[in-house]
Design a protein that fits this description.
- This protein has two helices and two strands, in the order H-E-H-E.
- It is mostly helical.
- The protein has a two-stranded antiparallel sheet.
- The N and C termini lie far apart (39 Å).
Length: 67
């Protein structure tokens, strides 16, 4: 069971890093999201050492915690 959990964790981390790369490729990470239908995703496990780690999957812009 423990090895299965480790394997699933590695796969989840790999998928999240791939998703982050795609979001960063949108080149909007320095802009605040202004989407009406923002789909936010928290990359706290991948880039938790930065203050901003919630990005919109639609436009790639960052989302502040208040939003």
């Amino acid at each position: 069971m423990r090895n299965e959990i480790k394997k699933l964790g590695r796969e989840a981390n790999r998928a999240e890093r791939k998703l982050l790369k795609r979001v960063m490729d949108l080149d909007k990470s320095m802009d605040e999201c202004s989407c009406d239908d923002a789909t936010k995703y928290s990359f706290v496990n991948t880039i938790g050492h930065y203050e901003v780690h919630v990005f919109c999957l639609n436009c790639g812009g960052y989302i502040t915690q208040e939003k």
